[in-house]
Amino acid sequence: MEKFVLVTGASSGLGKETALTLAQEGYKVFAGVRKQEDKEAIEACSENITAIFLDVTSEESVNCAFEQIMQKTDNLYALVNNAGIAIAGPVEYIPYDILKKQFEVNVFGAIRIAQKALPLMKACLTKRSPVCLSVEISGFIRNFPVCIALLCIKTRAGYVFQLAVT
Q: pLDDT tens digit string along 100-148?
């Protein structure tokens, strides 16, 4: 039986490496990207990767991505909710619209994806427990003296984990 995994934020960095590693291990990977050149680049790496356009801040984009996923499978083995942005600095100096965008991506985007993915993951429950990961970059930014991103990403990770176990 094929195991399908969704990796958000798969254009670069940890998301791309996760998608590539999973594909090498034989998983069928849906790699969430936002640009055509990223789609072409990651699909060229493995025939186990299907890149899908996915902007976690757009309900329309998320719905379209999940329509594409459901055309290929009715279940997901795992979700790697990796999409995120980091804004560093004292909160008093970060413009409100930038903070709002960070929460839209890191918190609400992750929740939006989890809400769509978890029903597909539950389809696997008869065989095993679903896997839901929320990647956080706080380990890489600890050296910043003040970092609001740490709070946002920690919140996102805790919420998505809670969704996965309920």
A: 998 899 889 999 999 999 888 887 766 555 555 555 444 444 444 344 4
In the structure encoding, which two tokens stand for residue 117, read together? 């993915």
Closest CA to 98 of 87, 112, 109: 87
What letter does residue 133 receive in the DSSP assignment? Answer: E
- In the chain, what is the straight-line distance between the N-terminal and C-terminal CA atoms, in Å? 26
- DSSP string over 46-61: -TTEEEEE--TT-HHH
Bridge partners of 53, per DSSP, are 33
Sheet holding 49-53, edge to edge: 49-53, 28-33, 4-7, 78-81, 131-134
- pLDDT score, position 130: 53
